[in-house]
Amino acid sequence: MQIKAIWTRISKRIAEAWKAGRIQRNSRITYDVIWNLFLFFLLLAGVGIFFVVGAGAGYFASLVKGEPVLSYDTMKEEVYNYEETSSIYFADNVFLGNIKTDLYREDVKLDEISPYVINGIIATEDDNFETHNGVVPKSILRALMQEATNSETKTGGSTLTQQLVKNQILTNEVSFERKAKEIILAMRLEKVLSKDEILEAYLNIVPFGRNASGNNIAGVQTAAQGIFGVDAKDLTLPQAAFLAGLPQSPSAYSPFTNSGELKEETALQPGLNRMKQVLNRMLDEGYIDQQEYDDAIGYDITKDFAEAKPVSDNDYGYLTTEVEQRAAGIIAIQLAEQDGHSKKELDKDNDLKNEYLEKAERDIRQKGYQIHTTINKDMYVAQQKIAKEYAYYQPDHWVKRTNGDGETETVSEPIEAGSIMIENSTGKILSFVGGRDYEKNQVNHATDTKRSNGSTMKPLLVYAPAMEEGTLQPGTVIGDLSKKFTVPGQSKTWNPGNYGGVYHGLVTARKALEESYNVPAAKAYKEIVNLDPASKYLEKMGITTLTEGDHSNLAASLGGLDYGTTVEENVNAYATFGNNGEFTDAYMIESITTKDGEEIYKHESKQNKVFSPQTNYLMLDMMRGVLDNGTATYAKSQLSNKNVDWAGKTGTSQDYHDSWFVATNPNVTVGVWMGYDKQDSIQTSGMGYSQRNQLLWTQLVNSATKIDPELMAPSESFKQPDGLTKASYCAIGGGKPTELCKQAGMVKTDLFDKDHVPTKADDSLIKQNGKIVLNPDFVKENGLQGVSIEQLFPNNEKVQKLIGKAASSSASAKSDDSNAVKTSSGAPLPPTNVQKADKKLTWTQSKTEDVKGYRILQKQGDSFKQIGFSNQSSFHLPDNDSTYQIKAVGADGKESETITL
Fold it and tell me: What is the pLDDT of residue 61?
């Protein structure tokens, strides 16, 4: 009853308010307010939309304002330009073949393609294809919203026309600018070509993953043959649906791996699921009926896949890949310059550079260029065979790698090799070896791999620059003694050592180079490093890998660069010596012509003077000694023509990671490198790593000499220029010989620049109490305090006996004991029970406790040359027929009595 009374009162008040008009007035006010707010927000939204559309249109216009308006004929040419792959020629117009490519395509007409494929492509890739004018605005807006919201689902906004434009006219660059250009060009293309023409072109260029040989394929005919072994016109509905699904993600959906093997079941599943999506779309769009759908969806498509057919690469794998890369670089610069960009801009802007490289690579695949190279076919073929069949590579080693499943496994890795041959005067690359086997390792070790060049750096950065600067001559005497160098900007010191830990006392620069002693090179470099020889000389010879630290780091004198250098750049630098001190940049592309014969590129060689003729010849003369008397005598002994004037240098990097030999004659320069890709020691027992390298070098040179003896074995030697003369010097202090030096038997003769012949009398010796002794002032000035006579002259017993005892008393008379030249306690005892059998040397170790190891020497010609160093009790020999020597080496570098057998 109470609720009823309350409701009665409320109803009465409402009736009174209505009768008085209060409700009507309030309702009109509320209505007016809401309506006005609606109009306001509607106006605001309109202004916002207008602003957004205007801003978007302005931004769009800014993206395409620089895009040239392509003519209809140009667009048609670009779209249909997918047939003519460029070709490569050896030197002298000898045909090699088409550009090596992993993309295979065979053209087909639209009426030769199964309707199932056509309908499947339209249903899944562009269901509005028949009605749009090149673009579908709602699809573009949807794609933009997904991009803006970072949606996990990306449906894309490209029509078949847009995809055709992207593949044939533009690049695959991901940017709003490229997308804007794509939209404009797609709308324009729709006015040029009919729908059937667009569809036919699309089906001939779209990628379809890999075929049963592991090759990348494009075009529906190539896909039908490569995946199912049938022609495009004969594809069944399930086969067509599978192919129609591939363009969205060719690599993910492809049934084959890059080696041509069928993927595992789990890896096939994405492609099979995509096929089902295509069938669903075809059913929804009415291209097939329910019965056709049911039959196809239940069909086992895997039984139709073609049988795997892995293919081998040919012998030109390294060459075609290298030529394509170099040609693309040349054409990219031309394309950039046509658009107003300089080479410097490309070098500074990687994105811009990559854009033009992509355009250039596409042109090479499409425009039928004829690329003429400098490579001598016969030499190249012969050298690939030698590198592949060489019998003396060192054993494989085992390294840990992460496989495709993310698991760590231990695999065998072979030692690799790289070589290159360059004509000195022109810079032509006549031949090269990129590696042992292209099928197993596609890395080009001649042009791409950067490694420490070890002691081959010494002529380039130390000895030739020092002679050019006037601080050194071949007869300059340098102490090969233990020496600690301070490292600029650091508290630590650097203490370079020699092979086997042995030092050789006072030696000439010539001897130090011949035997590749490290301390003399470091000392000589320290004298000139403040002149920045890295900039003044090394960079002028084409070394492009230097860092800022390389310009001041003393270890650079021994090849210790931050990034190292390639075989091509190292050999190219040595060709400077073969070209009378003038650098000519190496090249491989002689010319590029269009399919109609129009030359669009012709190489022009330019020479840049680096060294004077006098310095250059002195350096050559010193490097002759490397083959005649030093570390490369084995190379000379294996040459088929030993009368050729070769000058070169061996090299080994830190921890024996790399082995080099580079040499030049008056016509060509040839260099060989060996090492493991995963850097590790190449030092093994048996034939030394340096001999293995030198033997490969000689086999490559001998094969080329057989093909072109006039080029490889010139009868003329390097010509000595004016301004040089032979002069005598004292091989202790390097000055003009004195009577005391003559009595000590230390007067030597060498070749000098006339401006740097010793004129000051040598002051290294004095006579005291009727005996010849070392001058204490000379000892002090050269930092030889505490160094024994045996250490200064380890291989000269005559000098040791002549001035040994007197040196101590003489020095004592002039200075305190700390500055005296002291004698040692004696050489270590030799090894005993030395035997040679089965290409192996064995012995009982020396009884002297501080022996560091044993030097093994082999008789080569009239002298013995070191072939190894061992801290064990055995050593594998190259053969049993040679005469060998062994001697123990103490911690102080002294050597024991020599055992010969």
Answer: 45
Residues in the chain: 901
Are 570 and 561 within 8 A, CB to CB?
Answer: no
Which tokens is 622 given? 């010193």
Question: In the chain, which residues have pLDDT < 70?
Answer: 1-8, 10-33, 35-72, 74-77, 81-84, 100-104, 139-140, 142-157, 171-178, 310-315, 404, 488-491, 685-686, 804-826
Assess contact for 648 and 633: CB atoms under 8 A: no
Show the CA angle centred on residue 897, arms to residues 895 and 901, nearest 5°: 120
Cα–Cα separations (whole angstroms), residue 848 to 424, 729, 832, 842, 871 = 52, 38, 12, 18, 13
Please answer whether residues 614 and 753 qualify as being in contact, where contact means their C-beta atoms are separated by less than 8 angstroms.
Answer: yes
Helical (H) or strand (E) element with 870: strand 863-870
What is the rounded (10 degree) CA torsion for 276, 280, 281, 286? 140
CA distances from 308 to 94, 183, 202, 214, 264 (A): 34, 40, 27, 8, 13
**Six-digit token string for 498:** 């020699």
Task: Give the integer Cα–Cα distance in Å for 806 and 888.
Answer: 28
CB 464 within 8 A of CB 611: yes
Sheet strand arrangement including 851-860? 863-870, 851-860, 884-890, 899-900
Residues 29-62, buried b or exposed e (16+ Cβ, 10 A)?
Answer: eeeeeeeeeeeeeeeeeeeeeeeeeeeeeeebee
* DSSP annotation of 477: E
User: What are the CA-CA distances from residue 431 to residues 380, 542, 565, 639 (Å)?
Assistant: 5, 19, 19, 18
Cα-to-chain-centroid distance, residue 566? 7
Q: Give the whole-angstrom CA distance, residue 708 versus residue 703.
A: 9
C-alpha–C-alpha distance, residues 734 and 781, integer Å: 14
Q: How far is CA 290 from CA 238, 295, 296, in A?
A: 14, 9, 10
Residue pair 571/659 in contact by the 8 Å Cβ criterion: no
The number of CA neighbours under 13 Å toward the Cβ of 831 is 27
Residue type, 827: A
Residue (of 898, 850, 853) closest to 873 by Cα position: 853
pLDDT for 172: 56
Residue whose token pair is 């750096």: 457
Query: Count of CB atoms within 10 A of residue 167's CB?
Result: 19
**Are 771 and 739 within 8 A, CB to CB?**
no
Inter-residue contact 651 to 883 (CB < 8 Å):
no
Q: How far apart are CA 674 and CA 415, in angstroms?
A: 7
Residue type, 591: S
What CA–CA distance (Å, rounded) separates 434 from 447? Answer: 7
Q: What is the 3-state secondary structure (H, E, C) of 114-182?
A: CHHHHHHHHHHHCCCCCCCCCCCHHHHHHHHHHHHCCCCCCCCCCCHHHHHHHHHCCCCCCCHHHHHHH
What single letter denotes the amino acid at residue 600? Answer: I
One-letter amino acid of 130? E
Q: At what angle do helices 72-79 and 176-192 cross, to 10 degrees?
A: 100
Distance of alpha carbon 118 from alpha carbon 244, whole angstroms: 8
Name residue 752's amino acid: F
Q: Is this model's pTM higher than 0.70 or not?
A: no
Greatest CA span in the chain, whole angstroms?
150
3-state secondary structure of 342: coil
Q: Determine contact, residues 797/865, Cβ cutoff 8 Å.
A: no
Structure-derived torsion over alpha carbons of residues 127, 129, 135, 138, reported in degrees to the nearest 10 = -30
**733 near 778, Cβ under 8 Å?**
yes
Given a contact cutoff of 8 angstroms between Cβ atoms, the answer to whether 405 and 267 are in contact is: no
